[in-house]
Amino acid sequence: VHQSKLDFFCKLGYGKQDICKVLENLGQEALEDDVLKELIRMGSKPQALESQAQPSPLKLIARGSCSASPGSKWLGEDESDSSDHLRPIVIDGSNVAMSHGNKEVFSCWGIQLAVDWFRERGHKYIKVFVPLWRKEPPRQDSPIADQHILEELERQSILVYTPSRKVKGKRVVCYDDRYIVKVAYEKDGVIVSNDHYRDLQNENPEWKWFIEQRLLMYSFVSNRFMPPDDPLGRHGPTLSNFLSKKPVLPEPKWQPCPYGKKCTYGNKCKFYHPERPHQAQLSVADELRAKIKVSLSLGKEEEQRNHSL
């Protein structure tokens, strides 16, 4: 039990000394949620967050070299992700699997489809959270399809099991949604789920804003994972900007005027007129007034010249 808890919290990035210290204080039978709360209370942070908080020392690079040593980008998963322009992805495995299985079967293939979709986009940091009891053989009341996919994703360090155990024949399951939101919040990433996590929104105001702004919903259409093109609505960012750390503003596209040269709106026209790019877009009435002013001014100049002569 001690080794399993130690391995689990090491995967989350906490140091072994802090984990052992908490386990000594709380006891070996302490629940994982209590251990996590104690680690947070002690001020312990995952190693990835500590490395991001400390400013990296300046490095002198010889002339002619445009980058650092090639081996530096293979130092670790979290360091390579920090320089990437795509956000980390945290997938609610149970929600995705049950959605692909039509809420009747825990379909592990649905998780694989979601992971492959983000891999093809170039995301480096992808984590899937699934309860530990899903490793057990499927039962009639909880069928599982393609269970071997979970083993393969765990071997690739993509899938993380949230802890669970049996006490006097009853299964004690930790709240996996809290792990999902917490990891996504710490990594400043995106949560992939159709769940709204309303209980966690009421629990923490910072989590409330994060869930509202970083929750990516999805649909399965003919075994195809499809997130929406407008995750936050029609007036929100595009899917590409939603998944990027540095959103790119779209270039303005001018729609040509359907009336063309026959348009009489002038500068009040909201459309583009290619035939007058450098001319002031005046209305017809304003153009006539301007011509009259020019003719009147020319007439006054001629009268002054005649009087001077």
Low-confidence stretches: 60-83
Order of helices and strands: HHHHHEHEHEEHEEEHEHHEEEHH
Order of strands across the biggest sheet?
Answer: 5-3-1-8-9
Helix/sheet category:
alpha/beta
Provide the helix percentage.
Answer: 40-55%
How many H/I helical runs?
A: 13
Tell me the number of strands. Answer: 11
Overall average pLDDT: 78
Rg on CA atoms, Å: 31 Å
Largest sheet: 5 strands, parallel
End-to-end Cα distance, whole Å, is 113 Å
Q: Give the overall silhouette.
A: elongated
Strand fraction: 5-15%
Short structural summary:
Belongs to the ZC3H12 family. Helices cover 42% and strands 11% of the residues.
What attributes characterize this protein structure?
RNase_Zc3h12_NYN, 5-stranded parallel β-sheet, hydrolase activity, elongated, 309 residues, two-stranded parallel ribbon, mRNA binding
